[in-house]
Amino acid sequence: MAWRRSQEQQLDCSRGLLLVDAGTVLSLTKVGADGCFAGGQLLPGYRLQLRAMAEGTVGLPSTLERHQDAFPQDIFPQETVAAMQQGVLQGLLAAIEVAQQHSQGLLWICGGDAELIKMHWACATELLQVETDLQLQALLDLAAGISSGRDR
Q: 0.70 cut: is pTM over it?
């Protein structure tokens, strides 16, 4: 879907793209210049990492949900929950940045944490495309294609 959107928007896909699905799992999918799957990486997403720290470490807070407006601005917060949030976020951003440097193409971000990633993304933004519901759009297109295929 990201490849097709890039084509529709006449974006330069000559170096392919990196699709980041920022959900329960952070999925980094490389799409080559030909539009074909070229590999990927999976790592625990934002909330899953926070939950794992809280459940796997004695003494860390178990309630980690916090409104995005209250997200810690300090890179080294003094409060435990803020330090956990900032640490996880910086790790995810670093993983995305390294993958994007290797793919050197467009960067598409979707998923439930896409806005959080976008809000804190400090790298070149001219290559950044954000559509939080890209997966749902792909499912709708797939369903339309399947039903039109059956009608023939």
A: yes
